[in-house]
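Let's practice the habit of predicting before peeking. Look at the sequence and jot down your guess about where helices and strands might fall. Then scroll down.
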Amino acid sequence: MTADPVLPWATRHLGLTLRHTDSALLEPDWRIDTLVEPGLRRNPRRAHLLVSTVLGKHLPTDPHRVLDAGNRLGDLVRELLTGAAAPQPDRPVTAAVVLGFAETATGLGHTVAARLGARCYLHSTRRDVPTAETLAGFEEGHSHATSHLLQPMPPAIFHNDLPMVLVDDEISTGATALDAIRALHAHTPRSHYILASLVDMRTEADRRAFETAAAGLGARIDTVCLASGSTRLPAGLIEAVTALPEPVLNPIADRTGACRRVELPWPHRVPEGGRHGFLDTDAAPFDTALDRTVAELTRALATMTEDSDPRCPVIVIAHEELMYLPLRIAAALADSGIPTRYQTTTRSPAYVLDEAGYPLRRGFRFTAPELGEEAPRYLYNARWPETRPGPDPILLVIIDRPADTEKLTAAAGLVDVLTASGADVLLAVLPDADPRALAAARADTTKIPPHGRTAVSPSVDRLVTEPSHPLGFEVGTALPGGERLPEPLRGTEFGSYARDEVAWLLTDLSGVALEADVTERERRIQAGVAHYAESLPVEYQPDAEYRELFERVLAESAERLALAVATVSELVIAERGTEAVLVSLARAGTPVGVLMRRWLAARGIEVPHYAVSIVRDRGIDTVALDYLARHHDPAQIVFVDGWTGKGAITRELAAALDAYAAAGGARFDADLAVLADPGGSVRTYGTRDDFLIASACLNSTVSGLVSRTVLNADLIGPGQFHGAKFYRELADQDVSNHLLDAVSACFDRVRPLVDARVQALLNADRTPTWAGWASVEKVRAEYGISSVNFVKPGVGETTRVLLRRVPWRVLVRDPHAAEHAHIRLLAAARGVPVETVPDLAYACMGLIKEVKG
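Done guessing? Here is the structure:
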C-alpha cells in the first residue's frame, strides 16, 4: 500500500495539510499519510477530523488491518515495558493495566491489551450503567460528547500500582490523556504511565506540557505511536467549513432492503468488552463464546445469501463503544472465506461530501437507540470500499442489549435508514454481561494486588454473609478452599415433592412479591428495560372445565409418558453408567427428573436428583455448578429437561458450560436428556414426537408448587443460588404428586416395550438436526415477527405462552388433534385466535404478541 499521489480534497480545496515526521516502523504502510486522511466537521471548536484508515471507525476496513495496527502498537508498548519487542511464549503475561478511550479507541485499547496479555483492560464509557459503580471521570475538551466514566466491576480490579497504558487512536494535544491521568492518579497513584496512539500530532508546546504534568504528579509518562506528524490548519478553516453546502445524509434507493434479526449467544459472566473491566483470565472464555457466536452468525448469513453468491461480502457494523467483539467477529468471518470489512457507528457528526479524495463520501444520521438518549448518532460510508463485482454487501449490525429498543427499527432509526438506502441488514443482538454478575464472579477470587500477581482467596474458613441483603443468607458446611456454599432446599419445607425426590439448588424467595401484571411485564421485557427472569407472571389458575381436561389428558397420556421416561432413563444408564447424577432444569425438567429417578429406583439403581436454574441469555447458575462439582464427579452429571422447542435452552446450556470450564470451573457434559425432542436439538430423548406432556398443562401446581426460577440482582447476592418461590397457598390445588403417581403406575405395563426401543435408539443416528429452529425461522418470516423469541413451537411451549405470556395467536397443524385440546380451550378462554397451518412442522406453535411501547 502506498500513498495516493493525488492530494486529498481537504488539502486541495481548503489547505488542510497533514505532514509526516517520524515512524516507529520501517514499512511505508505506517506513515502519517497512510494512517490518516484529512476530513472535516462543523464544530466551532475544531473543524478538522483525522479519519483513520486502520481503526475501522469511519471507513469500512479489512479487520486484519485493524488488528495488525493494534498488535504493532502493543509490541511498541511491550518493548518499552519489558525490553521484548514481540510476545514470547516463555515470558509471563505483562504486569500492566490498559485503559482505552471511548468511543473511538475501545477496540484499539482492547487489541493492545490482548497483545500484551495485560492483567486488566478497561475502557472509559459515556453510557452511565446504573448497576455499575463509577470509579472516576474526566472530560474531553474537543469531543462532541465530552464526559468519560470509568466503571470497573468491582472497582478493586483497578486498585494496584502496576504501570498503566492509556490507548487512543490519535494524540492531538494530549489534554484528554492528561486529564485522565490526573483523575486516576488522584484515586490510585502510579509511578509509570504510557500513552500509546496510532498517530501523535502534538506540537512542541504540547510535549512540554506532558513533561510539566509528569513532574507535578511525581510520575513517569512515556509515549509511543506508530507515526508522528503535524496538522497544518489554514486560517479561517472553521468559517470555510461552515460555508460549505449542507451535506446530504441518509441516501434513499429505489429498493428497500430487508432486515433479519438474530439473537447471539453470550454467557452473562463473560465480559463482551472492557466497559466493566476485562481480566487476563477472561480471555479463554471470551474466545470460547466468540466461536459459538461466529457459528451462529455464519448460519444466519447463509440464510440471507442462499439465493445469491454464497460468498456475498459483509460489512460488520459495530455500535459505538462495542468495538472489540465485532472486530474479532469480522476477522473470524474473513478467515472463513467471507469477504468482510469492519466499521462502527459514532456519536460524532462529520461533514459528508461525495468527492474523490475525500474520505467521508456517504453518511447516515439516525435516532440514538438507547432509552433516554436524545442526541442523534451517525454512520459513514457503509459500503464496500473497493470496486468489486457481484452483490452489494450485507450490513451485519451488532448491538448490545441496551440499544435493542423500538427506536432501533422505528422511523429514522438505524435499521430504517440503512434499509432505505437499499442495504440488506442482519441485526445481531448481544446479551451484554451484567456488571453485577461480573463483580460477583470476581469478588475475592480475582484481585490484582500490588506488583501484579494474581491472588486467590485465602484458604480460611470464610463465612460469606451479607447482613444488609434483604433475604439474608444461609450457608452450608466448609468445603475445600475454605468457602461455604448454600445447602439445597428440600420438601416439604420447600416444594411439595418428597424430601428424597429432589434437592432444589435454589434460594427461597417465597416471602418476596415478584409477580407482575402479565401485559405490563411483557411490555417491559420486550422494551429491553427488564429481563424475563427478574420477575414472575401471576400464576394462572384455570377453571373447572380446564382441570377436568387435565385429568382426562393425564389418564390418556400416562402410559405414553411412562414409556418416554423409561426410554430416556435407560439411554442415560446405557451411555453414562449407573453412577449417573440427574440434574433437572427447574422447573419444567424437575417432574421428569423425579420420574426418571423413580424408574431407575424400581430397577434397583438409586441416583441423586438435583434441580438447578438456567436462564435464557444469562446462562446456568454457576453457584449450583460449584456445588455439584464439589459433591459429585462432573462427568456423571446428566442434565434433564422436559422437552425441546426450537433448541434455545440446549444452546444456552452448552454455551454456559463451556464458559464455566473456560473460566477455570469443572467440565460438565452438555448432552441434555429430555422426554420429547420435537425440535431435533438433542441426542438423548424418549421420543421425537411432538406430543402432550401433562406437566406442561399447568404451572406450579403440577411442578411441586415451585415457581419458575428468578435471577434478580436486587435479591440474589454473590455466592447464592438463583431463586424461586414456594406457593404454599396453592396446596389445595396441587396435583404434582398425583401426576407422578399416575405415570409411575404405568411403568410395569410399558416395561416389555423398553428394551427394543432403547436398543433401536442406541443403533440409530441421533445427531441433532436442528430442524425445529429452521421451521421457527420460517414461521417468523411468514408472519413478520421481529424475533424468534416470540415464536414458541410445540405443545409444551405453546401451553406456556397461553399460561404466562401475552399470546397473539396459536397455529395448529390439525384443528382437532387430541394433543392440543387443552391449548384450544385455553386460547378460547383468553380470546386468542387459533389458525390451522397444515404443513406446520410441530403439532402447534404459540406466537407472542409484540407489545413494545
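How did you do? The domain at 9-242 is CATH 3.40.50.2020 (Rossmann fold).
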